[in-house]
Write a structure and sequence with these properties.
The structure is a single chain. This protein is mainly alpha-helical. Helices cover about 40% and strands about 5% of the residues. Strand 1 and strand 2 form a beta hairpin. About 10% of the residues are buried.
Length: about 90
């Protein structure tokens, strides 16, 4: 699809990987869906999910859906970076 963002996981830092997993989880994707992008490594995705819970960036509602917390929204890595144009 033309609108898909291509992510090379090898180019992401640890927190950027966590953000990538977080955003896909809150969009309703499953651990299995996300693991497909990491050589079907469900353990990696589960451990990343544990990290997100541990640092307080994510919570799960009573329906099992993942939600980003206020702390997660306020973290610098979750804020959008300003677009900077160096052109004239």
């Amino acid at each position: 699809m033309a609108d898909d963002l291509i992510i090379n996981a090898n180019e992401l830092s640890g927190l950027e990987l966590a953000k990538y997993v977080l955003l896909r989880l809150i969009d309703g994707e499953t651990i299995e869906d996300i693991a497909k992008n990491f050589d079907n490594n469900k353990k990696f995705v589960s451990e990343t999910l544990d990290l997100l819970f541990d640092i307080g960036w994510i919570k799960q509602d009573t329906n099992g859906n993942y939600r980003i917390t206020t702390k997660g929204q306020k973290s610098k890595i979750m804020r959008r970076r300003p677009v900077v144009s160096l052109g004239g």
